Amino acid sequence: MQNQFYRLFSLMLVLSMVLSACGSAATPAAAPEAAESAPAAAEPAAAAPAAESAAPAQEAADSHESPMWTEMVAAGTLPPLDERLPKNPRVVEPLESIGQYGGTMRIPYGGSWSSRLYSFMGNENLVVWTPQWDDIIPNVAESWEVNEDSSEFVFHLREGMRWSDGELFTADDILFWYNDIASNTDINPVIPSWLIIAGEPVVVEKIDDYTVKFSFAAPYGLFLQRLATPDASSMLEYPEHYVKQFHGDYNTENLDELVEAASQPSWVELLQSKTGSRDNNGPGWTNLDLPVLYAWRVTEPPGGNSTRAVLERNPYYWKVDTEGNQLPYVDKLVWDFLDDPNVMMLRTLNGEVEFMNYYANSLQNKAVYFDAMVEGDFRFFDQVRDTANSLMLHLNLNTKNEVLREAFQNKDFRIALSYAINRQEVIDTVFVGQGIPYQGAPKPTSEYYNETLATQYTEYDVDQANQILDGIYPDKNADGIRLLPSGDPLQFDMILDATRFPDWVNVLELVQIYWKAVGVDMNIGGISGDLLEERRKANDYDATANFSDGGLATILNVGPFLSPLGRGSTYAPAWGAWYDLGDGAVEPQEPPDDVKRQHELYDMVKATADLDLQRQYMDEIIDIAIDRFWAIGISLDMGQYGVVKNNLHNVPLSMPESWNYPDPFPTNTSTYWLSQ
Amino acid sequence: MLQFILRRVFYMIPTLFVISLVSFAIIQLPPGDYLTSLVASMAATGETVDRAALAALEQRYGLGQPVYVQYWKWISGILLHGDFGQSFEWNQPVSTLLWGRLALTFMISLFTLFFTWIVAFPIGIFSAVRQYSWGDYVATIIGYVGLAIPNFLIALILMYVAFKFFNQSVGGLFSPEYQDAAWDWAKLWDLFKHLWIPVVIIGTAGTAGLIRIMRANLLDELHKPYVVTARAKGLSEERLLLKYPVRVALNPFVSTVGWTLPALVSGEAIVSIVLSLPTTGPLLLRALMSQDMYLAGSFIMLLSTLTVIGTLLSDVLLAWLDPRIRLTQ
After folding, report:
1. For residues A639 and A362, what is the distance between their CA atoms, to the nearest angstrom?
2. A303 CB contacts (<8 Å, ≥6 apart)?
3. In angstroms, what separates the C-alpha of A126 from chain B's closest C-alpha?
4. Residue B117 domain-assigned?
5. By mean pLDDT, which of A645-654, B64-73, B123-132, B170-179 is the weakest?
């Protein structure tokens, strides 16, 4: 069985990309984290601080917490540190140095606060990714066991761990979440798909106060990975003792009054308006009373009328550094809401921002930051995106237009269009020289990198493109556009969200010229994101430009470029819907046999925890993808960055960026510290 | 006069009803609904959203219901309980959001209005009286430049200047150290230090327009026989100017002063976004973009109501100012 665990962990080598990208600066953290990851060892490093704080340690404890708390402890308004920490706190090895307490971090944000706050500090799941995204390590759970066929998972929680209001966190909180929130059809009409395997939802049992067991109807080899992603965020954010008062099954005394006072239609809406970091669109962040497990808790909520949110340290945070100092180091986070990226940039240039990793970090801005580095007293860190390509061109193989469908399903046609693109020119003009010609494929540092998949048909060869196309559609009209068998010119619209991705329009404008040169007329349909979403759901489009997540976490994200499934597969939405309806309403169509084989293989990948088998199945999926040549890629996505002030420490030189790895949280944001 | 006002108020009722229908229809026009827009914006940052989560949200927001049910829910809430509904995006009651931002919006808008008038009227009068003089040309050039440069660009340039040469924190209405400080003189001073930027920016465009209108109106009047008569009778030049032609030239201002009322609330959305001001403009824009329908609908409703009230006010003012209009009523 022990062997089984190791296999499971090493399976995460899928995501090995980051190791090399991080370089030497990130590696010191790797060793202790890896030691921690052996569940049987149950964090050997933890023994030291636990013993220290348990025994005679009153004076020692004093020096291991923020001065903010020492006074309160002395005044008796806060219990001493050893009563606030669990018996076995999670020990985090800081990346560079043991920090100093204090300071305020200013972070700008635009758009939705829930995503940004969540990915900075909210991803406190049972297990988390390592900073390098190459393994899974204990977090809220101090250890776990998995049975032989990966269908039963037992998690051991930390005894004495507390919510931010001082109440104990136990297995009951997880059961409350599963039984009364996730499975309550008034609140959640459908059980989340990551909890369902072989059509059956998970069974959650309490073994004792600090042990929970998850049993699935069939093997679920990717369960631990799912647990580390934001999918699992809701599990640990429903403190039973607090949320009960809003729940119809528990509060029979004054629930109607509470509903009335909040002018909500029923208790369901009331509960939903009080909870959720990701659930219910994130109202939990605006509720000051909601107990949390995060390193900081909200003291000034974000909202329509405030231009910022303020968070202060959680006195009951359950992590310590290797010297037993309670984390986090930084006292206070101030999130400034700046709707305009230019303002964000000016503030960053002025050194008024400690950490910036979204919105104002376009490639075009990098030179401006570079010039102001000394004056603004900041430095860069690299962001390595999970995307397989800078931009994927998806011809809809299931389009309702029959003539075009026939053209698009012809692999030679797609190959010709790929040859017709001058990728180097696109890279030089739009992506300021960052990247190399590339198809939709795992990144070179990924375990699943495949040279053929990555580079096939990427040469710029107009003659060959014309030669292939002449074989299919030899006739042209007066404008030099090829004629379809119906006599109509070969024309189609490529739709995309022009508001959010002006860069993509720039790419397409070049592609339009290249394709016109070989007699194919593509119109750029720059439309609003909402309309795009509606048309994708209705499968009402001929071609679209899309993302390609999964360049690093390939095993979690096959849809965008390997095999049609879920929402990323806009190149064959109806075949994807056959496997998984996703969130859309695309009418499923029976796919060809090789696609069915891919679906079958992916089911096998999900079911097994055997790394070799997984590798073997994935390789077969990739072989089919090479043969299929689903969509046309442009270039390898490179050169992204974030900005940190020079006095902020323990920030790695490089970190992955992905929704599945909600950066920067897995790099241990609680160990970031400010030198004064 | 009283009867005139009452009749106008009575007309407002059907107008407002039609406006409520139209504004609700408008916010339903874009494809999809709030969830579509939510999914689109999440997809743009690579986030995935589970079907289960969407089902829960759809149920919570009642988005699956027919349009007339949604309209009734909204309008009956406003009429019967004064409840404008909940904003989906902010998870707050719409009324809280609206009232919370109105004070600052009004302040900025009023300051801007006074700034515009104080600058525009004297210059307008001057350039009409001294037409084609050196001063007239200077005023005209400045006016056109102010009119021609987009506001957001002036905003960016002023912010860059403030950052580069004065080392001032840009955006927002307060420096960070005063954000959560209690109101005192220092904080007020800090507010004024930030306030001049939006006031000048929003003011420049308006000032230019006003100068031109004032100049043109006044030029029409200056050569009329009554001016000559008054001058012949020995009236002093200033008294003559201010008592007769300027008063007549003010008519177009008064008849449009009502329109400033909705403008006070909608503010200058683009400038506010660029400057990160907590005014109502950016809120409205965001609500429309994300299809946050109760917030957007209530906003449009409020703006329309203010326009209707503003028009009434203009009419009353005009009747008071100009006896000729009063008599024909």
Report:
1. 10
2. A286, B90, B92
3. 20
4. yes
5. B170-179
Burial class (CB in 10 A: 0-12, 13-18, 19+), B266: buried
Same domain, B85 and B146: no
Across the interface, whether the CB atoms of A528 and B57 are under 8 A apart is answered no
Q: Cβ atoms within 10 A of the Cβ of A266, count?
A: 13
> Counting beta carbons within 10 angstroms of the beta carbon of residue A520, is it exposed (0 to 12), middle (13 to 18) or buried (19 or more)?
buried
- Which of B94, B123, B146 corresponds to the end of one domain? B94
Distances (CA, A) of B279 to A361, B256, B264, B266: 26, 23, 10, 8
pLDDT mean over B5-14: 85
Which of B36, B59, B94 finishes a domain?
B94
CB contact under 8 A, A188 and B55: yes
- pLDDT one-digit tens code per residue, A441-469: 999 989 999 999 999 999 999 999 999 99
Task: Please tell me which residue of chain B has the smallest CA distance to A657.
Answer: B46
For B31, the closest of A283, A530, A547 (CB atoms) is A530
Length of chain A: 676
Torsion angles phi and psi, residue B11, rounded to 5? -60, -25
Given a contact cutoff of 8 angstroms between Cβ atoms, the answer to whether B14 and A517 are in contact is no
Please check whether residues B180 and B68 belong to one and the same domain: no
- Which residues have C-beta within 8 Å of that of residue A323, sequence separation ≥ 6? A49, A64, A98
> What H or E segment, with its residue span, contains residue A640?
strand A640-645
Residue A6: the pLDDT is 45
Q: Which distant-in-sequence residues (6+ apart) come within 8 Å of A136 by Cβ? A: A9, A12, A37, A127, A128, A129, A130, A224, A225, A227, A228
Residues B57, A281: C-beta atoms closer than 8 Å:
yes
3-state secondary structure of A77: coil
Q: Which domain holds residue B84?
A: 18-94
pLDDT at B36: 85
Distance, in Å, from the CA atom of B329 to the CA atom of A15, rounded to the nearest integer, reads 80
| Sequence-ordered alpha helix ranges (H) in B62-182 | 67-76, 94-129, 134-148, 151-165
Tell me the sheet residues that pair with A321.
A92
A112 contacts in chain B (CB < 8 Å): 41-42
Number of domains in chain B: 2
Nearest CA in chain A to B167: A350
DSSP letter for A25, please.
Answer: G
Higher pLDDT, A25 or A192: A192
User: Minimal CA–CA distance to B200: which of B118, B130, B266, B262?
Assistant: B118
Its ipTM equals 0.80
Task: Write the CB contacts of B36 (distance below 8 Å, at least 6 apart in sequence).
Answer: A530, A533, A534, B291
Q: Which residue of B has its CA nearest to A116?
A: B45
> Quick check: is B6 in a domain?
no
Q: Is residue B12 part of a domain?
A: no
pLDDT tens by residue, B111-141: 888 888 888 888 888 888 888 899 889 888 8
Query: How many residues appear in chain B?
Result: 329
Q: In this complex, do A334 and B176 lie within 8 Å of one another by their Cβ atoms?
A: yes
Dihedral angle computed from the Cα positions of residues A173, A174, A176 and A180, in that order, rounded to the nearest 10 degrees? 150
* 8 Å CB contact of A567 and B43: yes
B59 within domain boundaries: yes
Q: Which residue of B has its CA nearest to A340?
A: B274
Strongest mean pLDDT among A7-11, B23-27, B201-205: B23-27
Residue A17: what pLDDT?
A: 39
Domain co-membership, B272 together with B136: yes
Q: What span, in angstroms and rounded, lies between the C-alpha atoms of A602 and A617?
A: 7
Dump pLDDT digits (tens) for A546-556.
888 889 989 98
Give the rounded percent of residues in chain A with a pLDDT score beyond 90: 66
Pair (B215, B235) in one structural domain: yes
Do A347 and B171 lie within an 8 Å CB cutoff?
yes
DSSP A608: -
